[in-house]
Amino acid sequence: MVERKSLSVIGVGKAFGRDRVLEDINVTAGEAQLLVICGLPSTGKTTLARIICGLERADAGQVHIADQDITQLKPANRHIGYVPQSFALFPNMSVYKNIAYPLLRAKQKKNDTASQVRRMAEMLGIDSLLDKRVDQISGGQKQRVAIARGLVKKCALYVLDDPLVGLDFKLREQLALDLRLLQKQIGATFLYLTGDPLEPLMLGDNVAVLADGRIQENAPAVDAYKSPKTDAMARVLGLPRANFIEAPITDAGRRVSSDLFELHVGNPGSVPSSTDRIRLLVRPEHVGYENAPADAVHFSAEVRLIEDIGVDSVIHLETAAGKLVACQPSARVRTRNDLRGTVQMWVRPAMIRAYDLDSGRILDCTFRANEQ
Amino acid sequence: MSKIELSSVTKRYGSVVAANAVNAVFEESSLTCLLGPSGCGKTTLLRIIAGLETPDDGRVLFGGEDVTDLSVGRRDIGMVFQYPVVYRGLTVYENLELPLLQGLRRKLSSGERREWIDQLLSILNLTAKANRVVDGLDNESRQKVAVGRAVVRRPKVVIFDEPVTNVAVDAKIEIQRGIKQLSQEIGQTILYVTHDQTEAMTLADKIILLQTGNVLESAAPVDVYNNPESAFGGYFLGSPGMNFIDASARQCGHDDVSRVRIECSVLSEPLWIRAKDPDRQIENGAAMIGIRPEEIRIVDRTTPGAIRGGVKASALAGGGRWFLDCVTEGGDEFKVLSSADYDLDSASTEKWFLFEKSVVRLYAEDGNRVAFDALNGE
């Protein structure tokens, strides 16, 4: 076990020329917590990782580890384990030496080094490659060497920048589970940055979303998925991706008339009277085609494509409100050859969430199918 | 159009056998995925089909014609790689047009050419970018241009070598959809190499699964998913893959040796079976039952046949399902996917599960599936 320390990023901003990548980043990862920061491509995840590790200088703001301000420290003095997205290994050295490099630099005892390297290599399934040169192994294997090198040195904080991207699918699945276990064993704070829609749920204690240069929300993983407080969070988490429908809210905040269905607000007054349009979040797994419950609202849709991804099938629909995606168990979908052309679909209003168009924040309203 | 057949194709690199007497058929006008982990030999097979590599043994047939010794240029193949190969300095439209203006093929009239390119642009969702120079495009759009370039000449065969590996998730889905639509509209023989099982499931008409140079599965995606011939196939398709739980098999009765009793810690009572295939019998001793994570039901402790399992870890998975990593009292591990409407009480580390006999599959110790008829008790 290592010393438990938290990470705080306070008011960090960064621009490259006129391009303001990070506006005002404020985020904290608690002691021994695994915080996943997710964001769509080119939202500044790598820039943030590099600023925390000291490889990039922020224009404004501070980085603290526990109560120490490390903003001005050199990378080597920050004691952060870093797994970069694009790994730079030494091609002429063995896998062993590459992994051991941070320990050799820290002048650690040879015996300890050997056992630490071996343990890390076993975990990542590359222990049989230790004697090979890096230029003799495959891309996926190199990536695992880079992960091992980033994690081998004992640190209070590790920063992992999308370390599994591009790896073999099955390996990814296994490594996500292993990394989580490893983090709990080491007891260190992990900051994990990714663009993947499912890794944050599999890995994280907490999930934060980076969009428009700011951390929009930071919440426990399950809450982040089940009741996201911002539409930015709903957008980055979950596969298939979430559906959004914009709709006018009328009748003094009592009624939502989307192009697909009409909803009644269960708690009138929950939406500010100045609001005339809202954004509805509909998760694909909440869009059904059979066994509609009594409290459902219905709409017709054109089936464009059904993708059987194994456990579930993704049904791509064209509707009056544009493209919509449903996700239902394949075991049922496979038996239904009438799922083509125009079909009747349904959603339960209770599962729909609403967001303010401007702020992207959740509105505290509930929906039902009928006026009561 | 042409069907591709590999007949006993073998390729060795030193002591490594990259292709071990591979027999495989790639039907014409359909999309076949060569699937497998890195190092399974899929790139070797692709290179042999393209003519970039000569097999040590065996033949390659295109439409029944032996092309084993034919050079790359004479095989009429379009290829798309991991990194987009496009003509820089030209617009998207010009990139698609250029291959049509070159070569010895009967030239299309300018009207036909325009119509065909417009159709391609629309399938690939590139119409709005037709007049942009490719250099300024993002990686995803350039890869779409590369796809268009590979198919625009209508070669008999198009090969995709992990074309969406370096592409973000949403663009990936769009490119895949384009390829699927192209395969349906142009009717070429398409070979698609990938290590991603979801990609193979959604795209393929047929999956050929490789492991260390051997073909383990060769069937439609749903068949490979539901009834994999090999334990590896069950593990590799699906996320998480199929569970394999140790079982013991005992043949009963001297006059009727095909009657077998299977015992397993997750089955509340023994399973009595008779193997369907007389050549694939199950021996006395170790066996495995196979069950998909979504086929295991999370039930009440009072449910008849329910077994107790400890939950080691849990997390939300795709489609709103819960993923549970579990272990039985006897130490057998299994993974479960709940239904999307299941509400996990994460405080309790113990749950009850039902493994229905009607859904389990049986595998011999060597990983080969044994098809069986279930019997009603002894």
Explained architecture:
The complex is a heterodimer of chains A (372) and B (378). Chain A has helices at residues 45-53, 95-105, 110-123, 139-151, 169-186, 199-203, 221-226, 231-236, 330-333; strands spanning 7-16, 19-29, 34-38, 60-65, 68-69, 80-83, 157-161, 189-194, 206-211, 214-220, 243-250, 255-257, 262-265, 277-282, 287-288, 297-308, 312-319, 322-329, 341-347, 353-356, 362-363, 367-368. With 372 residues, chain A is an alpha+beta fold. A seven-stranded antiparallel sheet of chain A has the order 21-20-14-11-12-13-22. In chain A, strands 6-7-8-3-9-10 form a six-stranded mixed sheet, sandwiched between helices. A five-stranded antiparallel sheet of chain A has the order 15-19-16-17-18. In chain A, helix 2 (95-105) crosses helix 3 (110-123) and helix 2 (95-105) packs parallel to helix 4 (139-151). The radius of gyration of chain A is 24 Å and the shape is globular. Chain A starts with 6 loop residues before the first strand and ends with a strand. The model of chain A has no long low-confidence stretch (mean pLDDT 93). In chain B, strands 6-7-8-3-9-10 form a six-stranded mixed sheet, with helices on both faces. A six-stranded antiparallel sheet of chain B has the order 20-14-11-12-13-21. Chain B has helices at residues 42-50, 92-101, 110-123, 139-152, 169-186, 197-203, 221-226, 231-236, and strands spanning 4-13, 16-26, 31-35, 57-62, 65-66, 77-80, 157-161, 189-194, 206-211, 214-219, 243-251, 259-264, 271-275, 285-291, 297-299, 307-316, 322-328, 333-337, 350-354, 361-364, 372-374. The longest helix of chain B has 18 residues, at 169-186. By secondary structure, chain B is an alpha+beta fold. At the A-B interface, helix 5, helix 6, helix 7 and strand 16 of A face helix 5, helix 6, helix 7 and strand 16 of B.
